[in-house]
Design brief:
The structure is a homodimer.
Chain A lengths: L3 H4 L7 H12 L5 E5 L3 H13 L4 E5 L10 H9 L3 E3 L1 H17 L6 H8 L4 E3 L3 E3 L7 E4 L7 E5 L3 H13 L1 H6 L7 E8 L3 H14 L7 E7 L2 E8 L4 H15 L3 E3 L5 H8 L5 E5 L5 H6 L9 E6 L3 H8 L3 H7 L4 H15 L3 E7 L14 E8 L4 E7 L4 H24 L1
Parallel strand pairs in A: 2-7, 12-13, 12-14
Antiparallel strand pairs in A: 3-4, 5-6, 6-7, 8-10, 8-11, 9-10, 14-15, 15-16
InterPro entries (chains A, B): CinA, CinA-like_C, CinA_C, Competence-induced_CinA, MoaB/Mog-like_dom_sf, MoaB/Mog_dom
Pfam family, one (chains A, B): MoCF_biosynth
Family (chains A, B): Belongs to the CinA family.
């Protein structure tokens, strides 16, 4: 991967993780990810490093623009020991794309000047296969002599790279490079409310008691209060995986919420089918509503909600009794329940969820420190419930974590409704 | 950097960009970022690659845990040609930390068993300096013989790495490795509504007309509808930078909204001082409210808002006339204005902003395709205004872009109020 903007910390590298996922799906083992600036010597050094480590395929992203500071194709060609030549068919393709864009913006392009500007991008290593551009930069696949790795050159913008990937994989050069791959299965278990250390304990037990455990590659990771465990194995490891799943189910059954890849968001969406939901948010201030409407089709079940940041908004828009706030404080279970009840009544929904908490950095007290968040749920039968948690981290952590907790509380309440 | 979880695409590498930023601030040029799995051969190959490219300092992150699959320290020691030895002072430090955590969780730790479990993390390369752990993993600085790079080993969790960084930089080994650095200045210009290609045109003019242009390192990047241009230069490049800034101001003055590093969020927050704001969101469904409340202290000016996803919510919670929706459709400027007016009146604020749009993938029509978003602003003097845009991209792009546009519309309206 090249890109001064990635190296200087201003852009996170999206392509590395995305390509890692695609390669894993194909059963290709990824040995190294490297990032450098758009400098010939650095790109060349990385290509040499990767080649000397015996990889079969090098995928580069970035450095394909029309300007002089983009030099990936020329550097790869030199590395593979081939010249660049103008591909006139490709030149026409790029010229057409640029001209079409110009006309869309209402300007009348001078085709010859466009051609000159885009000529650099139509220079292709001799013998290479090019992949049609999504933007203006084509990809190329350079197959070197036997023993040397195949180099697949893709553009840096994630949207372009992702759109061109399927065609790139189908090229003869890439297919040949990945011919020796193993097919893997990959399964994901998601848990909520389980400390990572307890999962580690269970995995140590699994290691001691389940035959074939070591042949499975297990990665666990904590994200936003959930623990995600991904297991990758060859087809004959399926029975071992089932044994691990059974062990975890026995020890952490109540904390496992997904074994089929579904996220809590997808589960809540499915459970809301045929129902309508409203939100009443204080400390999360719209984050739950935004998350519920992330998924396409959410207008079928999201009615709307209220961001009740000031107490006056809780009173005026959610009919919370001012005396209740006076007595218990805005961050309290009675107020959270009243907020949920208010949203449910105002929007006439089947279920409503509320948050009221102290995200920090200010506003904490010995009694209710920063991180204290009250959640309320109201149902159409008139029942309500509330929970209070103390969530760790800074303002942004507390707000994100609260949103995830809300999704899990919704999941639990909706499952009870369905059972 | 090591970490199977990063390499398999499930976790984005946060440490690379963060360290890149810190090194830049120090004036240290970052040549390569590399990522590999927690495998001895791969870590060693990357260390050798970096050393052979003549770097002065290698920073590693990750692979310092207590379990056997974490092997960074041992691999670095072998690479530097030194043995590991138990540091008893460090062992006590880690044991104390683990025991304190256990007691916090209410369990009574067996100090001897804790000591055994943490012994691996107290093994330090002979002659190395260790950096006190924030979690349980200490950092180490290994200074090899002359000519070889200094290796700084830090833990993988971003929170731990970031907390330990200042102490790591102060160590004699790191100071010696970065002694030859140049101090750089870095300036950021942010623009909104400017195509990246027009900025590129202006920079080409700058290259032709401004002396010393090539000595400045300029990176431009598009993020969420804004263009950010970061310029890095040695102190004697300041006059050249000023000339570039003047050129851009002349050509794109109305699109430049920040030259001092401030984000639009910070500018809106400052402009809202002494005022109160309300939101009325349909397609963004809480994202504007969430963004306004991202900053600490926002409770001083955010009153609250309404997520009016269904038409009934627009009517019931924002007093939008049903006939208006019937006549113009929910995605229309009259409805957006009525929504903003409703939020302003209900919450008694000085300003209110609204969105109503088609985020997709469904719901588009020839007349109002996916990406059509109407924005409304209402002010306390009774005036309203509306804008309609067609935003590119998928559902998530349209919603994020709408949120950014809303911030810029707010900025403009608030500046007019202030002028």
């Amino acid at each position: 991967m090249t890109g001064t903007e990635v190296l200087t910390g201003r852009v996170a590298d999206e392509n590395g993780p995305w390509l890692a996922d695609r390669l894993l799906e194909l059963g290709v083992e990824l040995a190294h990810i490297t990032i450098c600036a758009d400098r010939e010597a650095d790109i060349d050094a990385q290509l040499r490093f990767l080649a000397s480590n015996g990889v079969d395929l090098i995928v580069t992203s970035g450095g394909l623009g029309p300007t002089a500071d983009d030099m990936t194709v020329a550097t790869v060609a030199a590395f593979c020991g081939v010249e660049l030549e103008l591909d006139t068919e490709l030149e026409s393709t790029i010229t057409d794309i640029v001209a079409r864009w110009a006309r869309k913006r209402g300007s009348d392009p001078d085709l010859e000047s466009v051609r000159v500007a885009t000529r650099k991008q139509a220079m292709v290593p001799v013998g290479a296969t090019w992949i049609s551009p999504t933007g203006t930069a084509p990809g190329v696949v350079v197959t070197a002599e036997s023993g040397a790795p195949t180099v697949l050159v893709l553009p840096g913008p994630p949207r372009e790279l992702q759109a061109m990937w399927p065609a790139a994989v189908e090229t003869a050069g890439v297919q040949k490079a990945i011919a020796g791959r193993t097919e893997y299965r990959q399964e994901t278990i998601r848990m909520f409310g389980l400390p990572e250390s307890e999962l580690a304990d269970s995995l140590r037990i699994g290691e001691d008691t389940i035959a074939g455990f070591d042949a499975l590659e297990i990665t666990t990771c904590l994200r936003k209060g959930e623990v995600e465990m991904v297991t990758r194995f060859e087809p004959d490891g399926a029975a071992t995986y089932d044994a691990i799943l059974a062990l975890l189910d026995e020890r952490h059954g109540t904390q496992i919420f997904s074994t089929d890849g579904a996220t809590v968001d997808e589960q809540v969406a499915a459970l809301l089918s045929g129902r309508r939901i409203a939100t009443a948010e204080s400390c999360t201030a719209g984050m739950i509503a935004a998350r519920l409407t992330d998924l396409a089709g959410s207008s079928a079940y999201v009615a709307g909600g209220v961001v009740a940041y000031e107490n006056q908004a809780k009173i005026g828009l959610l009919d919370v009794d001012a005396a209740l706030i006076e007595t218990h404080g805005a961050v309290s279970e009675p107020v959270a329940e009243a907020m949920a009840r208010g949203a449910l009544a105002r929007l006439g929904t089947d279920i409503a969820i509320s948050t009221s908490g102290i995200a920090g950095p200010g506003g904490g007290s010995p009694d209710k420190p920063v991180g204290t968040v009250c959640f309320g749920i109201a149902l159409a039968d008139g029942s309500t419930r509330a929970t209070t948690l103390r969530l760790p981290g800074d303002r942004s952590d507390v707000r994100e974590r609260s949103t995830t907790v809300a999704m899990h509380l919704l999941r639990r309440a909706l499952r009870e409704l369905t059972d």
